[in-house]
Amino acid sequence: xxxxxxxxxxxxxxxxxxxxxxxxxxxxxxxxxxxxxxxxxxxxxxxxxxxxxxxxxxxxxxxxxxxxxxxxxxxxxxxxxxxxxxxxxxxxxxxxxxxxxxxxxxxxxxxxxxxxxxxxxxxxxxxxxxxxxxxxxxxxxxxxxxxxxxxxxxxxxxxxxxxxxxxxxxxxxxxxxxxxxxxxxxxxxxxxxxxxxxxxxxxxxxxxxxxxxxxxxxxxxxxxxxxxxxxxxxxxxxxxxxxxxxxxxxxxxxxxxxxxxxxxxxxxxxxxxxxxxxxxxxxxxxxxxxxxxxxxxxxxxxxxxxxxxxxxxxxxxxxxxxxxxxxxxxxxxxxxxxxxxxxxxxxxxxxxxxxxxxxxxxxxxxxxxxxxxxxxxxxxxxxxxxxxxxxxxxxxxxxxxxxxxxxxxxxxxxxxxxxxxxxxxxxxxxxxxxxxxxxxxxxxxxxxxxxxxxxxxxxxxxxxxxxxxxxxxxxxxxxxxxxxxxxxxxxxxxxxxxxxxxxxxxxxxxx
Length: 511
Prior knowledge:
This protein is of the alpha+beta class. The protein has 7 helices and 19 strands. The protein has helices spanning 2-31, 36-50, 57-83, 95-100, 144-147, 239-245, 445-451, and strands at residues 116-121, 124-139, 158-173, 176-186, 192-203, 210-218, 251-260, 266-275, 309-319, 325-337, 345-357, 368-382, 385-386, 407-408, 411-427, 430-441, 460-472, 475-486, 490-504. The strands form 2 sheets. Strands 2-3-4-5-6-7-8-9-10-11-12-15-16-17-18-19 form a 16-stranded antiparallel beta barrel. A two-stranded antiparallel ribbon has the order 13-14. Helix 1 packs antiparallel against helix 2 (36-50). The longest helix has 30 residues, at 2-31.
């Protein structure tokens, strides 16, 4: 009996001991800060002790290892999906934004559309792009440079490096972005030239839909003047732009304030205030390198007052007549002094139109049809002029080859011109286009009567068909024919083959 009681006590003691061990395990599991995997293993292990079953530790380790491996596989698949996601082709979206969504350590393959980046800190960065534009061809004209007055037009038979443009763009901080365009080109004399086309800052967060730009920039007059050579739809610049704004277009240091008008459609009003002197202000305070311009020698002084500045207002609107069409209308004007004499001013007025059709079902933006037209009027107050500048009766600048002190009265010279161009993108990568140009004076003027036709005002027209092939978005090949007719000089025929390639990112072209 006693042995039975002892046995019972032994069994009860063993059972109590087992319960004690279980309680200790439970307490340890609750206090230990393991992850959920170890907690699950501990619970299973405790249950096995209570049920007096043997624990297979090696099997649990294998299950845990398999779980970790499956987790790593899922992470790798997620990384692969993110790295293979299509990147936006909009160059204005920085690649730093795309790379920020990738997992840490994942490398994004470089694409030719990506910026060539020089350093990055936070939201600040600098993108660099290089664009080369080369032309080759011939012309029946004796002086190709006179035939093609644009500074980046083909200027000689054979080969012309029209421009090698380096563009720097970047975000300075949350309030400012910057851009600079530096061009290298070779003139018809074989001389190398470097010019600062643009270098400006503009705001990103002004209230009331306002934006301020300051620095050196192309004046926003019409459609063509603000565009860079690589964005032109033709090998050369329109005649009216070259005649009124000069070889390099209208641009100068200054500031521009624009306002996005709160209308149901796109509407923009802007005013630019810039210096009016220099070779980039052809119709204003330009010395013309001490050569006669419109019959007069010009002298330039530094800016002394607001009257010496150039003012350029512009207003443009855009809307969609149908779901497949877009129309943009604009009007511009430039007011400033010229260097022909005291109180002599120049006024230039312009209107422009851009229309584009593209079907709702298209392939890479093709097919499409676009039409662009600009018309301009220039009124130039030419001051009184005589070859006897110092009044001693002896000609100081013999303009016409004789010894007579000729006199030219003050007069207002009026000139006008226009161009109109149509482009047809008939299949992906191929665009056919044609442009017509015409410029003429309203009247001959006193200088015309004395010295004969002025090359700066002679009536002329040009017809230019071309075809362009874009092998990719980074290159193009263009073939263009020009038929020129200059009053008093006759007709000339020219043919040009142009090639362009782009390295790095470049801002979106002007719409």
